[in-house]
Amino acid sequence: MKKMPQRTCMGCNVKKDKNEFIRIVKNKNGEINIDKTGKMPGRGAYLCDNIECLEKAIKTKRIDKVFETQIEQDIYEKLRGVMIDK
Q1: What is the tens place of the pLDDT at every residue in 31-44?
Q2: Distance of alpha carbon 38 from alpha carbon 44, whole angstroms
Q3: How far apart are CA 50 and CA 68, in angstroms?
Q4: Running DSSP on this structure, what letter comes out for residue 16?
Q5: No. of H helices and E strands in the chain?
Q6: Torsion over CA of 7, 75, 30 and 43, rounded to 10 degrees?
Q7: Which end of the chain, N or C, is more open, meaning fewer C-beta atoms within 10 Å of its C-beta?
């Protein structure tokens, strides 16, 4: 059986299997996207699939720090939409 890579949530700092998270990626051009496949090239960051972790990461500006850039509000709205649509 293949071992699943572990990742840490930026909101709650809990380690889980990679496939249990929502991946946010920053590509070479500096664009921030939500990576539904988990295979997009670029720097990845992970969040649990719940709104509390997202709000905690926004409040502490953890996503901004990880990507070393200011995250636009529309990215946060897209993330909220993905988490609510499940």
Answers
A1: 999 998 889 999 99
A2: 9
A3: 24
A4: E
A5: 3, 5
A6: 10
A7: N
